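Hi R.,

Here's the input for the fe (ii) ion complex you asked about:
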Amino acid sequence: MKQIKSLKITTLAENYAFGRGIGQWGLSLLLDLVDAEGEPRKVVFDTGMNREALLHNAEVIKEDFSDVDCVVLSHGHHDHTATTTEIVEASGGVKVYGHPHTFTERVSENREGKRRRIGPPEGQGIGEIEAAGGTVVLTEAPVEVVPGLSTTGEVKRRSFEKGGAPSNGGRWILMVDGEETDDQVLDDLSLWTDVEGVGPWVITGCAHAGPVNMILQVQELSGFDMINGFIGGTHLIGRTDDYVQRSIEEMAKFKPKLISPCHCTGFKATARFWQAFPEEFVLNNSLRIIETGKMPRHRLI
Ligand SMILES: [Fe+2]
Ligand SMILES: [Fe+2]
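And here is the predicted structure with fe (ii) ion in place:
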């Protein structure tokens, strides 16, 4: 895949806030790039859980989504899918990329057997997105969503990481044709790109396959043996110290120059990343701006 010219990532939704932003449990990243053909592009990766907070943050940076080229949903959890319809409508109707499971009904069952729905919230289904002018594209295969920026497609589970099992115990259930199946969150995909003069970047939603599996998937698709940047969720929240340490050690083999784990990484693992990558770590939060090839001035706020 050809290199893109530049990439700027603005966090529209994240657990914590920066400056005039509002935090929420959820993730949404706005990618401004100059694509492999030299065209300016705007891609929204995930759409948060709290619509009002996300739209507030967008307003602060005067983002009205009118020139968004497409929306990519990392996976069908409610904290990544709550503002898709609104963004599609504001864009005048664009494609929304996901996996065949992204909009499938799913529930979380805790250790006491209590269940709650954790799929896209009301008003954010395929029907509503299409009524807003959008076109929903669901595939297990990688897709080049704009020239030089691609999804990973479905991610193979090949490292020590435990895939989709909830880290706090309990069970995730996916409803397929009325049948309950164990939900390994196979829909969870990432974005990757290669930035001219900078190198490869991996951008994750929750990385339910595990951040190491995500990077290995990008390696298989691209042939990269290092990455310049990593940003996004790692789902290390609730994992043991040993597990977190192992993930960090495996990720360090790819020698990232900028690493910004956020959202479902959780505070403890985020702190461990900071300790492991004191020069490369960038604390992320709502309205954080990261431009590839530049280290933000305030790395820890
Ligand atoms: Fe998730
Ligand atoms: Fe999440």
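One thing worth noting: The chain has one domain: 6-291.

Cheers,
M.
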